Amino acid sequence: CPAAFTGHGWVFDGHNQTTVEVDGVYTVPVVATAGGKNVRVAPGQRQSFLMRTKDDTSKNYAILDFQDPNMLFINKGLTPDPVYPLNATAWLVYNTSADYPAPPVLYNLGNDDFFDDLNYVPLDKEPLLEPVDRQLVIDMSMENITGISRYILNGHTYLGAKVPTLYSSLTVDETDVSDPTVYGNVNPYVLKYGEVVEVVMNNLHTNLHPMHIHGHQFQIIERSDPKGGSWSGSYSNLPATPIRRDTVMVQNEGYAVVRFRADNPGIWLFHCHIELHVEAGFSAAFIEAPETLAASDLTLPEDHINACKTYPMDYVGNAAGNDYNALNLTGAPDTVPKDSWGAIYPPVGEAAHS
């Protein structure tokens, strides 16, 4: 789903859909539209399905795509505008001489009207990752910082470093690479190689957020209903073979719990997949096995160095570009830009913005 903001659902009228893949993970085939259920994806999610066509070619069928009105209107206490283009229609054509029917009319769709993607099972049936070696509890909310509305994770908004975080991990002294201080204000979380990491996302905001990780497909352990509150610390029902994805929609004022094994050394962004939210600081950097990166034979490619020089930007040292004392962050970005452009400018109140 390449949407910039809302999730999308879709209907092939008169046809069932058998889901076989989500976010690059093959699933045990399941008819997700059985019993009148609908299917949907959040921004950043992908889904593949098989669909058997009709033997009868006497009529055509509508294809309906619809945006999630909850994100645009309902969660903010607004009534959907009847002229707002929430829907798009196409047709599955069997007979070019037959009529092109109107799409089905769907009323008041709620969570129960959709197939719950946590009910998918990975085809390889990878068992639940346990025990947990590292737990990250991340509270996600919004705050007005010096007149600019920003998203914050555990009280901190993402501020880009002078030196790309990957380059810092490859150019500072090996004795310093595991110290999160080196990476500045990118919301750094340093992970050890091979540990099972559990991420608890408490969405304190009034809207849904599709949370995405680079470099991994995580097991989705649990997710609350809308307004389910923050995670209590107790699991309600641990799945034996949880579905794996790289994006999970976290319900408004609810939570989600995911797990992955830190077996892919690198610098991996963890962020909301709504692009204007990324621009407004809704990101963190998972610094995975930096000591492995530092001990490897990886070096900065010459074309990367040339691009940095042309831009120009720093490419050696810590977040401040300091290559002689990695723990000296003098000069690293530490304030929210006040330029009159970009996401959520001018500042708005919590109730007014999604």
What can you see in these coordinates?
- With 354 residues, the chain is mostly beta strands.
- The chain has two domains: 8-119, Cupredoxins -  blue copper proteins (Immunoglobulin-like), CATH 2.60.40; 134-352, Immunoglobulin-like, CATH 2.60.40.420.
- It is 9% helix and 29% strand.
- It has five helices and 18 strands.
- It has helices at residues 69-72, 165-171, 275-279, 290-295, 302-310, and strands at residues 8-12, 18-22, 25-31, 39-41, 47-50, 61-67, 87-92, 134-145, 148-153, 188-191, 196-203, 209-213, 218-223, 244-245, 247-250, 255-261, 266-272, 283-288.
- The strands form four sheets. The chain has a six-stranded mixed beta sheet with strand order 9-8-11-16-13-14, with no helix packed on it.
- Strand 8 and strand 9 (148-153) form a beta hairpin.
- The protein is globular, with a radius of gyration of 23 Å.
- The protein starts with 7 loop residues before the first strand and ends in a 44-residue tail after the last helix.
- It holds the Pfam family Cu-oxidase_2.
- This is Multicopper oxidase.
- Residues 9-94, 162-291 form the Plastocyanin-like domain.
